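Re: beginner question about structure tokens

> Can someone show what the tokenized structure looks like for a real chain? I only ever see the sequence side.

Sure, here's an example I had lying around. Input first:
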Amino acid sequence: MKSSFRMVLILVLTSLFTAACVCMATAEETGTSELQKGELLFIDDFQTTKVSGAWGCARGENQSNYYEDGEYIINVVPIDSWWRVQSGKSFGDCIVEVEATPVSGPDDNVYGVMTGWLNWSNYYMFMISGDGYFKFVKRYEGSWALNDPWTKSDSINLGKATNLIQVKRQGETLSFYANGKKLADYVDGSLPEGNVGIMAGTTACGGGNVTVSFDNFSVWTIKGT
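And the corresponding structure tokens:
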């Protein structure tokens, strides 16, 4: 009886250990985010123009940016064109996030977060698209110092769905997230601090007239720093 009991116990423990290993492997495979927020430094829910710094409002034939129904709207009409808006708030190490929703236009579009903005010759942008791709670019001293190819990710919600876009800056490492899943890292120390903002645009293949709405733009410290 004791021998049988020991055998059953061994089988049970083996099963539990195997299950634990499977769970850990699954968590790693899903790319679970290690992003941890600390103190809230800045938030704009775009309910009013009165407290919103440098976002501003402009309406034109080619590009527009304005407030509407508690959201911030960017519309870009020309093909293969981007429109960027900075908040007037500057940060170093932090987590920047925004909820972004393509409202109209082709799914082959561009929208995302801008960080490290010193002027229109120096900044970073992390962008995603409605057809499920992401890209990171760096503008430095008036030239595109980094312009990586588009990369496919299943973590990006397709079409006119909302995506939570996040950029984490810690030291020289920038980490990029969509809906809580890390997509990539980039190491660079040339723009350690700068304004944060948002962007939207069109592509050469997708066509023109893209509209994207943004909500709950926020900046956080990194927990433990």
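Each token stands for a local structural state, so reading them left to right follows the chain. The chain has two domains: 1-30, 34-222.
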